[in-house]
Design brief:
Elements: H1 12-21, H2 33-49, E1 56-59, H3 66-77, E2 81-85, H4 92-100, E3 107-111, H5 118-130, E4 132-137, E5 144-149, E6 154-159, H6 167-171, E7 175-178, H7 184-198, H8 204-212, H9 218-235, H10 242-251, H11 261-272, H12 280-287, H13 291-304, E8 308-311, E9 314-317, H14 319-324
Helix pairs in contact: 4-5, 7-8, 7-9, 8-10, 9-10, 11-12, 12-13
């Protein structure tokens, strides 16, 4: 039931399509004004000194541009870029091979750095601080640690869950940038820019409509733009305007707030229980999904939108959820007035 259209996690299609629309320089980056200014100061000062900048940690939800910023850092420094991910580094030897192959001033980008294996993380400590790694050769009493020098480099780590980083790892980053969700106006500019690069005719109204349903995430905005483009080319006149955007997103079950079928199913499951509280496992069973999917894919946006709240007893639906689904709430609920909740008598409820 999971719909990847409004998921902030990257699909294979996203990885290919995003290459052409990614900003290449800080000056091209839209939004994230505070982090952008801080990065600019960090990089400009490093260039003037002629030495690599401090290690950089970028934190924030998926789809906000952490990988793009890592690429921009390398481009601004005129340095080489090596990219890997935390789950791909299973052994310390894997990381040592990457580190010893770096050239002077290179940028090493590790995505999802909080998932790096502990032996590799401990090896990374000395590399970040002293630009040296100790490779252990042999086993048991005869094992020998061979020190290897590493060329000075800049590590750019990206994480969606900074709370899972260990203290020693977090302390070794000289700069920490927290990426925030984008405003609709910023997403409109991003969509217009992507449309120009992809040669997609688009009106201002079309960009606004896609932007306000993109959940504050550029990755989702670009994905919706491609789907609306497909609709406009097949069933319209090829122009992404307001009519095409609304019709296309209706076909793809993305409503006015950016909720998809799974989001609405979660809210509906809560409303069937009188608005909650409902436990995560019970909620997942009710919508036919894994608890991790509900917690990581649906909940963040529902919480941020004010449609759901967490309590010590479980998840509850807010008055906004009743209003958004057009269901009369129980007595005492803002916008409600139907003591029974009115679930079974609401026309078209199960078509949501």
């Amino acid at each position: 039931m999971t719909d990847p259209l409004v998921s902030a996690f990257a699909s294979d299609e996203d990885m290919v399509a995003d290459q052409s629309v990614r900003p290449k320089r800080l000056a091209e980056l839209i939004g994230q004004h505070r982090v952008r200014e801080q990065l600019d100061l960090l990089l400009q000062s490093a260039l003037r000194r002629g030495s690599p900048p401090d290690h950089i940690l970028l934190s924030g939800p998926p789809g906000l541009g952490k990988t793009t910023m890592a690429m921009i850092v390398a481009a601004e420094l005129g340095a080489g870029l090596r990219m890997t991910s935390g789950p791909a580094i299973e052994r310390a030897g894997d990381l040592a091979a990457v580190l010893t192959s770096l050239s002077l001033g290179d940028v090493l980008f590790i995505d999802e750095i909080h998932r790096i294996a502990r032996p590799a993380e401990e090896l990374l400590y000395s590399a970040m601080e002293d630009f040296r790694v100790d490779v252990v050769v042999g086993k048991g009493p005869g094992a020998t640690a061979i020190p290897l020098d590493v060329e000075p480099f800049t590590l750019v780590g990206a994480t969606t869950r900074s709370g899972l980083l260990t203290g020693p790892m977090r302390d070794r980053f000289g700069f920490v940038g927290q990426l925030d969700f984008y405003d609709p106006d910023e997403l409109e500019l991003i969509i217009a820019r992507s449309a120009r690069i992809l040669d997609v005719p688009i009106t201002d109204e079309g960009a606004v409509e896609i932007g306000r349903r993109s959940r504050g995430t550029p990755r989702i905005a670009n994905r919706l733009l491609r789907r609306v483009r497909d609709y406009a080319e097949v069933r319209g006149n090829g122009v992404v305007d307001l009519t095409a955007a609304r019709a296309a997103l209706r076909v793809y079950d993305v409503d006015e707030l950016g909720l998809d079928r799974l989001d609405r199913a979660v809210l509906l499951a809560l409303l069937r229980q009188g608005g909650g509280p409902v436990g995560l496992s019970t909620l997942a069973v009710a919508v036919g999904e894994q608890p991790d999917t509900v917690e990581e894919v649906c909940e963040p946006f529902l919480l941020r939108s004010g449609l759901m709240a967490r309590t010590p007893r479980g998840r509850i639906a807010t008055a906004g959820a009743w209003q958004h689904l057009g269901i009369p709430g129980p007595a005492g609920t803002v916008g409600g007035g139907n003591p029974a909740g009115g679930l079974s008598s609401t026309p078209g409820l199960f078509d949501l």
